[in-house]
Design a protein that fits this description.
This protein has a domain at 48-76. 54% of the residues lie in helices and 0% in strands. The chain has helices spanning 11-29, 50-60, 65-75. The relative contact order is 0.07.
């Protein structure tokens, strides 16, 4: 049995699916606030500085006082 699609054949459906795909991709890339989320810095939290990391390690007791003082001097 042969399907009859009219004089244009499948033409109307040929642009509907790529259009839907494009809209979904744009919605994924620009989520609500209009800024890109793919590879941008807006979605990542701030990097911790070396001093903050050192202070946290000392506060947890991971390193001793002498080692803390030496490392603090080295990064200053």
């Amino acid at each position: 049995m042969m399907w009859s699609y009219g004089p244009w054949g499948m033409f109307p459906w040929m642009w509907i699916f790529p259009l839907i795909f494009l809209l979904v991709m744009l919605r994924f890339l620009f989520r609500g606030d209009g800024r890109p989320r793919c590879g941008g810095h807006g979605s990542h939290r701030r990097e911790e500085s070396a001093r903050e990391l050192l202070d946290r390690r000392y506060a947890r007791g991971e390193i001793g006082r002498e080692e803390y003082q030496q490392m603090k001097k080295d990064i200053a």
